[in-house]
């Protein structure tokens, strides 16, 4: 793999991280009680999260210039790991044994697909 290809892979992984962050922000917004239905959807958390989703989509589209289409879903699966870590850090969620085993299986699957 050349240096240019690594940049596209890193960009793709960063876009997945941004999408995962936006998911955690949306969950944080859902945990807040709002006085009206419109405020549930028009608040800084939701607007910011959808802004991040849009940016992530742009980054992913650009990253596909150097990432093969067959590798995209494999890299996208790292989002489960990011969401788990971000959920721990931002939402103070606990990692259960099942979540840890699931993430180990995801990472194992990524390595098997990418290197074998």
TrEMBL record:
Keyword Endoplasmic reticulum applies: no
Residues passing through the membrane, by range: 6-26, 47-67, 73-91, 100-115
Its membrane topology: Multi-pass membrane protein
Lineage top rank: taxon: Bacteria
An example molecular function term from Gene Ontology annotations: transmembrane transporter activity
Subcellular location as annotated: Cell membrane
UniProt-recorded name of the protein: 4-amino-4-deoxy-L-arabinose-phosphoundecaprenol flippase subunit ArnE
């Amino acid at each position: 793999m050349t240096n240019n290809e690594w940049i596209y892979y890193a960009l793709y992984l960063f876009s997945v991280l941004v999408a995962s962050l936006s998911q955690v922000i949306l969950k944080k917004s859902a945990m807040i009680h709002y006085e009206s239905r419109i405020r549930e959807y028009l608040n800084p958390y939701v607007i910011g999260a959808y802004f991040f989703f849009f940016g992530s989509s742009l980054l992913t589209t650009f990253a596909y210039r150097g990432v093969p289409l067959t590798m995209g879903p494999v890299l996208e699966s790292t989002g489960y790991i990011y969401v788990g870590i971000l959920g721990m850090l931002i939402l103070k969620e606990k990692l259960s044994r099942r979540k840890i085993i699931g993430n180990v299986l995801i990472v194992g699957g990524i390595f098997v697909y990418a290197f074998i």
